[in-house]
Each structure stands twice: as structure tokens, then as C-alpha cells.
Amino acid sequence: MVNLVKKLLKKINSKREIQKYINSRKFKHLQHETNLKINENLNKINYYKDNYIEKFFFKNFNNQDEIITQYILNNINWKNLQKKIIIGKYKAVSLPANLSFLKNLSINIKINFFLSFVTFYLFVIKSFLFGVIYYFWKIITFFIDKKNYQTAIRDSSFFLGINKNCINDDFSNDLNTYGLSDWFFKDFNQEKNKSFFFHNCKDKKKTKNPKFFFISSPINIIKVKTLLYFVFFGFFLILFSLIHLLLFKWKLPLFLKELLSSNIIRNTPDEFLSKNYFFNNSSWVFRPLWTYEAEKKNSNVIMFFYASNIESIKKDDENTLKPINFYSLMTWKNYYVWDNHHENTLKSFLKQKNYSHDSIFKLVGPIPFEDKPLNFGLKNEHINIVIFDIPLYRRADSYYFDFETSFYTYENIKKFYFDILEIFNEKDLKNVKLFLKTKRSINTNIHDKRYKKLISKLSNSIEIIDPRVSAIKLAKNFDACISLPFTSTSRIFDNLGKKAVYFDPVGYFKKKHKAAKNIQILNNDELKNWVFKIKNEIKQK
Asked: Do 272 and 154 touch, CB atoms closer than 8 A?
């Protein structure tokens, strides 16, 4: 009976999604322009004026309107908003946001204000309850946590939002590993004996190396004085948040947890804060309130990018440097980028709101994220070339993304691979060995079934590399790469002095497309000539 109900609900939901898709097709051409306008307008929102109590609790944050917009947008979720933008062109949509935010969006899409208000207020209530639980939990953990890491804190860098494949706890200069922790010890921090790698990855609670520490949160009450301040401050903040909640004033209850965290950092001695706090580009745009307090205490808060393809990819590259992904809302002070191209792209996004000239852009080269060992050896007598694609996701998921263009189709990806195979099957290229690395594992439900079958079929003729293997490791070990436009992989190879091109099998993009960043875009005959040129160059060596 339960299974029958599940099947029925799934069928009903599928029909709804199909109808949404049919209706949305009529308005798909308006999505990009609408998205650009929404990105621009979100920087201009002014929320209701604070009363005296709100002014007291928010007094340390001068950019309150930006912070609120970031927070609401983060809750809505970028992918969900992309979907709502198309649907909102023909039908009123609901979003968990306050009146000012919704009025701003209503300039470009239809909004159901009543349902939006209900969902937003439920979100405010949930945030308040989480904040109350957080308050008591922080008090409890002060008494039960062992602070055996205290002496290492000021010499540490704390990495947030990473997974177990980012951490190589068998660190050694002799190991051919290129995960995030390797980059930290080998490239970023040269004082290996004094630096510590803190993280909140639960899958790596225990490590072999004493330089690695798991801490569930970067915000901890360590001193009794900090605890007393927190208890007193938190009690009155919760009390006033409850009163405001009943009066339909939402700022304090919505930001209860954030304000409590900020109070902990504000009253923690400098020596008990990490030297660096690292956030990655998957963290998206919202910057936690406590990071502003950490910077006041001489900690560095860093947004680093392990991918560089952040542009708006369209056939016409006129709007390439205009943000559709809300990067223009970011307020980080330190940005770690790969090169000048990456820096200029990011600056062009931030200029939409006249970013602070205090922002620091540091060029550090490609930054790895996760890594796994290669499950095969490379033969020196072969010219080893790796292929990188852009995975094809289920249309139900990808259709509503603004970056979807008529180029990223199953037919073009199939042609991309088959044309490469046809070129490399020539007799004169028998000593050239091809490998393939997808961005993610295809053994998930997020990918198009045709794409999954295609990769499975290709595995009979091309060696498949584990998606978790670092592209930097591949650039160190392979001779060249061929990428589908415009993945970050060709730029990684190019940055490390290896041969790299983008292959466009249908001539969709112009040769000097801005997103290529001076990397060649080749068509069929050009790719063939490029491969033979590489072969001859390596032969001469």
C-alpha cells in the first residue's frame, strides 16, 4: 500500500514537472536578461530601519543590508531561484523572503506575496529555535569539550566545507598527492613545523598526522570570561528576539545564531583564534557574521577558488563578465584566485556594486580540492592525453540553469568524444594514449541516462580516471589535455606549462571567445593538426 501511494505521488509530481517544463520553454529566452537585472537590483535593497534594540545588537555591522540579502539568498538557494525566475515569468511564485526582497524581485517576475510571507515567517521561527538550541549547546560544550588543541590555535588555518578527499594526513614531500591539504603545506604555508590544518570534516575526525585537527565548529568558547559574556548577552538577545518575533520584527530572530556566534568571537582572546579561515567557492555568497569579528582580531578570512570557470557562458560573449550567479553580492576581504584572467573576471562581477578597494586579490595559481591515487601507471613510451568534459545532467535539473546553452547537449557531447576517437584512431597516432576524466561520478541519479550510457560505452576504448583525482595531479603527469569549453581543466594545464586546448566539434563558439582566456578553441581539422604537432615536439625531445 505504501509503495502504491509513493508511485502515485511520484507520477503526479512528474506530470506537474512536465507541465512546468512545457510552460517554461516559452519563456526560456527571457531568463538570461531577467537574471542579469535581478543580479543588479539585489544590490539596491534597503530593509526596514532598526529600532534601538536592533541597533544595539547590529552595531558592529555597517553593511547590514548586504548581509541580509546574502542570508536570504543563501536560504532560497541559487538553483531554486534560477527555476523560480523562469516560472515567475508566467506564474506567481513563492519565495521565503521579506517584503523588501520580494518587491525588488517583483519588478522582473510574478510573486505570490501571501505564500512568500508565510514561508518566510516559518523560516524566521525555525531560525529562532535553532538559535536557542545553539545557545544552550555552546554552554554545554564548554564543559564537556577537551581543549587539547589550544596551544596550536594561533598557528592554525581553519578550512570549512571540505570533504575527506581534500585531506591527505600521510603528508610527505615525496608523495605525489595534490589535495587541498597538500597545497596548504607544500605551497601556501612553508613553515611546516609550526602550522596546523584545522577542519570540520566529520569523515576525518582521526588522522595519523598531529598537524591535523578535527573541530566540529570554528566557533568555540574557551575561556570562562568569554562564557560569562556569552551567557549574559545571549539571554537578553533571546528574550528580545522572542518579543520581536511576536511583533513581526524579524531581524533579531532570523540572525539569532549568527549574532551569538559573533559574540563568542568578539570576546575570545586573539591567541585563541586561527590565523586564517578558509572558505571555498562552494560556500557561495553568504559571509557569516562572525568572520567580520575575526578580521578585527587580526585573523585572515579568505575566499579561495578551486574552480575558475565562473563566467556566464553564452554563444555571444557580450555579457560574459556580467554576473548571473550573485557573485556581485560577495563582501569577502581576501580572494585567492588563479591568475590575472581570474582576478579580472571576479573584479568585473564585484564592480557591479563598486566593491571596496580594500579587497585583496592574491594570485596563487590553480588550487586543488580533492585527490585520490591514480589506479594505473603511465608508460613513458606513450604520449598521454586526458580528456575533460562537462557532465550532462538530467534535463529536469539542468533546464532551469541560466548557464545552459544549446551547445551543452547530448548530441554535441557525443560528437565531442566520437570526433576525438576518430582522430586518434589513425595509424600514425598509435603511440598516443587517451584517458578520460568526468567531473563527477556517473553512478548517481543527477546525470542524463544517455550521458551515463555514453561514458560506460567509452570505457571500453578509453581508460577512465576516478573523478576525485586532482586535475593538478593529471597536469603534472600527463602530456596534454583536451577539454570541452569552458572547463577549468585546460587552464590548470596551461598554468602549469602543459599543452591544453578547448575542442568545439560543431564550431559553436567564436575563436576569441572571452571565456577561453587565451586558450585555443579548435575544430576537427585543427585538433588533428594540434595532436600531430604535439607528437612531433615530444619526439624531438
From this structure: yes
Which triple of cell numbers denotes residue 461?
576504448
Strands 383-388 and 480-483: parallel
SS3 for 472?
A: helix
Over residues 121-163, the pLDDT tens digits come to 999 999 999 999 999 999 999 988 766 667 788 889 999 999 8
Structural domains of the chain in order of their starting residue, each with its CATH number: 2-49+65-109 (no CATH), 383-540 (3.40.50.2000)
How far is it, in rounded angstroms, from Cα 309 to Cα 1? 48
pLDDT for 174: 45
- The amino acid at residue 93 is V
Q: Strand, coil or helix: what is 458? A: helix
Q: How large a percentage of the chain has pLDDT more than 70?
A: 90
pTM exceeding the 0.85 threshold for the entire prediction: yes
HSE, side-chain direction, 13 A CA sphere, residue 437:
27
β-bridge partners, 277: 158, 301
Question: Is pLDDT above 50 for 480?
Answer: yes
* Angle of the 113-144 helix axis to the 224-246 helix axis, nearest 10: 160
The answer to whether 285 and 327 are in contact (CB under 8 A) is: yes
Residue 31 CA to residue 176 CA, distance in Å, equals 45
Q: How do residues 367-384 score in pLDDT, each as one tens digit?
A: 999 888 887 767 777 788
pLDDT, tens digit, 9 for 90 and up, residues 224-267: 999 999 999 999 999 999 999 999 999 999 999 999 999 999 99
Sign (positive/negative) of CA torsion 334, 335, 336, 339? negative
- Residue 301 near residue 295, CB atoms below 8 Å: yes
**b/e string for 77-114 if b means 16 or more Cβ within 10 A?**
eeeebbbbbbbbbeeebbbbbbeebbebbeebbebbee
CA distance 86 to 131: 34
Q: Phi and psi (nearest 5°) for 510?
A: -70, 155
Angle at 129 between CA 216 and CA 133, to 5 degrees: 40
The CA–CA distances, whole Å, from 490 to 246, 408, 471 equal 55, 18, 9
Average pLDDT, the chain: 86
Task: Label the pairing between strands 360-363 and 383-388.
Answer: unpaired
Cα distances (angstroms) measured from residue 521 to each of 175, 226, 449, 488: 34, 57, 28, 14
